[in-house]
Design a protein that fits this description.
Length: 365
C-alpha cells in the first residue's frame, strides 16, 4: 500500500501584470486621496511580489475599454457575484486543462483514472468543473468524483490526503487532482485593511497532479508519507471567506502570521513525533507562501533559513498567492531539484480559514 505523486503540472492565465501596475490600477480607480495612494504603493512593494496573473485583461486597459469592470472612473456599478461566476465558469476549465497538459502531456490515456478531485474556493457551479473535465478529457463516465470547495489555501493538501486514503485502500487507484483559483475575480470596492491586504497578494493559477496507488517502475515519484492538521479557532475571524453580493469577501488580518507562528511548531512536532522523525531529518521544505511575514514566522519557529525556504519566496515573487494551487507550485519546484536524489524528505505546509494549518511529509523515491 502507498500513495505516490507521479507528476505535477502548473498553469497561469495569459495576462501577466507587474505589482506596480496593479497598485496603479488601485490608485486610479479605488482610492481618492494622495495619502491613500502612497499607502497602497508601499503595501504592494512590501509583499515581495514582482508579478501576478489574472484571467481579466482590464488591468492593462485604459478607462473606456474595460470589458469586466464598468467604464466609470470609480468602476461603478461594481460587478455582481453573478457576473463574476459567469467569468469563472468560462475561464476555469481551459486553465485547468492547461495545468493537466503541463502535468501529463496531450497523449495521456485519461480513461485510466479511477478518481477525480477538483479543488476551488473562488467559484462554483453545478454541474461543475469536475463534469466539464470529464467531458473535455474523455475521462471515464464512472470515475469517482470529489469536489473540495471553499476551503481556501490549504485545500490542495486536503485533496492529497484524500487521495492517499483512496490509494491506501486500493493500490489500483489512480487519482487526478486539479486545483483552480481565479482570485482576481473578487476585487472588492471598499478599501478596508482586510481588502487592501488581500488585493495586494492574490492572483490566478492552476495546478494538477497524479497520485497512484503503486510506485512507478524506473520513474521518480513522491511518496506521501504522513499528514497532520491543526485547527486554531481563535483565528477564525482573522482568515475567513464569505459570499457577498459583489463577489466573495475575504477577511484577512495582519494577525494571521502571529497565529501561524504560535501554532506551526506544535503541528510540526506532533506530526514528526508520530513517525519518529525530527526537523533535522527533513531535507527540503515546500511551504505555502501566504505572505512574506508568514514565511518569516515559520522560519523563526522551525529554525530554518530563508535559503531552505527559497522555493516559497520564488513562487511568491513570480506568481503571488494563488490560494490552493500555490503550495503545489512550490512543491513542483522543490521536487524538480530532488528527482535524482532518492529518499529525500520534503515537509510541506499550507494554511487557510479556520484558522487551519495543514502539514504533509513526502519522500522522494
Amino acid at each position: 500500500m502507498g500513495a505516490f505523486i507521479t507528476a505535477i503540472g502548473t498553469a497561469n492565465p495569459a495576462n501577466r501584470y507587474s505589482q506596480e501596475d496593479l497598485a496603479q490600477f488601485m490608485c486610479d480607480h479605488l482610492t481618492n486621496e494622495p495619502a491613500d495612494h502612497k499607502k497602497v504603493k508601499v503595501l504592494y512593494r512590501a509583499t515581495g511580489i514582482q508579478n501576478r496573473y489574472s484571467v481579466l485583461d482590464d488591468y492593462k486597459k485604459k478607462l473606456g475599454t474595460f470589458s469586466f469592470y464598468a467604464n466609470d472612473p470609480e468602476l461603478n456599478p461594481f460587478p455582481s457575484t453573478n457576473k463574476r461566476m459567469s467569468i469563472y465558469k468560462e475561464k476555469a476549465l481551459p486553465l485547468a486543462i492547461s495545468a493537466i497538459t503541463d502535468c501529463l502531456g496531450n497523449n495521456h490515456l485519461f480513461s485510466a483514472f479511477t478518481h477525480l478531485i477538483t479543488v476551488s474556493c473562488t467559484g462554483m457551479y453545478a454541474p461543475g468543473l469536475d463534469v466539464d473535465l470529464i467531458k473535455a478529457l474523455n475521462l471515464s463516465s464512472d470515475i469517482r468524483r470529489n469536489s473540495l470547495n471553499f476551503m481556501g489555501c490549504y485545500a490542495a493538501m486536503n485533496a492529497i490526503g484524500m487521495a492517499k486514503e483512496i490509494c491506501d485502500n486500493n493500490p489500483k487507484s489512480k487519482v487526478l487532482i486539479v486545483s483552480v483559483e481565479l482570485c482576481s475575480l473578487h476585487l472588492q470596492k471598499e478599501q478596508t485593511e482586510d481588502n487592501l491586504l488581500a488585493h495586494s497578494l492574490f492572483a490566478d493559477g492552476a495546478a494538477a497532479l497524479v497520485i497512484a496507488g503503486t510506485q512507478p517502475v524506473d520513474e521518480p515519484a513522491l511518496e506521501v508519507i504522513h499528514s497532520a492538521s491543526q485547527l486554531f479557532v481563535n483565528g477564525q475571524s482573522d482568515m475567513a471567506w464569505q459570499i457577498g453580493d459583489f463577489g466573495f469577501q475575504m477577511a484577512l488580518t495582519t494577525y494571521v502570521p502571529k497565529i501561524i507562528e504560535g501554532g506551526i511548531k506544535l503541528l510540526t512536532t506532533k506530526m514528526l513525533d508520530q513517525i519518529n522523525l525530527s526537523i533535522s531529518d527533513i531535507d527540503a521544505f515546500a511551504i505555502h507562501p501566504g505572505g512574506k511575514k508568514i514565511l518569516e514566522a515559520i522560519e523563526n519557529q522551525l529554525g530554518i533559513t530563508k535559503e531552505q525556504n527559497q522555493a516559497a519566496y520564488e513562487v511568491l515573487k513570480n506568481y503571488g498567492n494563488m490560494s490552493s494551487p500555490t503550495v503545489l507550485f512550490v512543491l513542483n519546484q522543490v521536487w524538480s531539484k530532488l528527482k535524482s536524489q532518492p529518499n529525500q524528505k520534503i515537509l510541506s505546509f499550507a494554511f487557510g480559514p479556520g484558522l487551519t494549518l495543514e502539514g504533509l511529509l513526502f519522500k522522494n523515491t
